Amino acid sequence: MRAVRRPPGCILEGAEVFIANEGLIKFLPAPLSLHVYRLVWRQALFFLHNLVIWLALIILFPQPISITLLLAIPAFAILLLNGVWITIFAGIIATRFRDIPPIIASVTQLLFYLTPIVWDYDQLLKHSNPNIAERARLAELNPIMHFVEILRQPLLGREIIWHHWYVAGAITVLGWTGALLVMRNYRARVSYWV
Predict the structure, then answer these.
(1) C-alpha distances in angstroms, 160 versus 61, 136, 168?
(2) Rg (Cα) of the chain, in Å, rounded?
(3) Is residue 1 part of a domain?
(4) 2 found inside a domain
(5) Structural domain count of the chain
(6) What would the pLDDT profile of 131-170 be if each residue is shown by its tens digit?
(7) Three-class SS string for the chain?
(8) Sorting pLDDT into bands at 50, 70 and 90, what band is 82?
């Protein structure tokens, strides 16, 4: 039995979405996007279940809630849109080249450590050592950082930095363009590759 890996599910599980649904793809005449939407929906439900922890923390440690909290809704929608194109793109490529899922897992783990989740980006930027502050700026090259920030800032009541929104929007447009091209060119071959 295959172990289910959680974070970030749309990248890791997306690489195997068509391989895992081989039987359905071969014997059920359904669009490939159905498997993608099922995976993204499951990941959205995991996120919403984890949002209960955020609600509990807001209740236990009350903070003033501002109108910027509403920006978490479009941020979540952007995450879902990106989850779909990432799943389409990674799923088709990994179905054709079976060596890709372990590579995606390694790169995803590296990107996780480069994302300011386990370390504080703002503190490193303000560090007295300019070399450390400059290294913190390199985190801006990590696309996952921008998606984390567009959701984290409204939920924590922090000042909204629009730069992250612009980068996330650009990644969304470019990603969907690439995913639609890959889907158009290779959709019919996936059932032979699984």
Answers:
(1) 21, 19, 14
(2) 19
(3) no
(4) no
(5) 1
(6) 877 877 788 888 999 999 999 999 988 889 999 999 999 9
(7) CCCCCCCCHHHHCHHHHHHHCHHHHHHCCCCHHHHHHHHHHHHHHHHHHHHHHHHHHHHHCCCCCCHHHHHHHHHHHHHHHHHHHHHHHHHHHHHHCCCHHHHHHHHHHHHHHHCCCCCCHHHHHCCCCHHHHHHHHHHHHCHHHHHHHHHHHHHHCCCCCHHHHHHHHHHHHHHHHHHHHHHHHHHHHHHHHC
(8) very high
Tell me the residue length of the chain.
194
pLDDT digits (tens, 9 = 90+) for 84-121: 999 999 999 999 999 999 999 999 988 888 888 877 77
- Crossing angle of helices 72-96 and 162-186, rounded to 10°: 30
The answer to the question of residue 4 being in a domain is no
| Phi, psi angles (nearest 5°) of residue 159 | -65, 135
Range of the domain at 19: 9-193
Taking Cα atoms as reference points, which of 194, 21, 24, 178 lies closest to residue 89? Answer: 178
For the record, the structure tokens of 67 come out as: 């109108």
Are 86 and 175 in contact, with CB atoms under 8 Å apart?
yes
Question: Tokens at residue 84, please?
Answer: 């779909």
CB 9 within 8 A of CB 39: yes
- Pairwise CA distance, residues 62 & 80, whole Å: 29
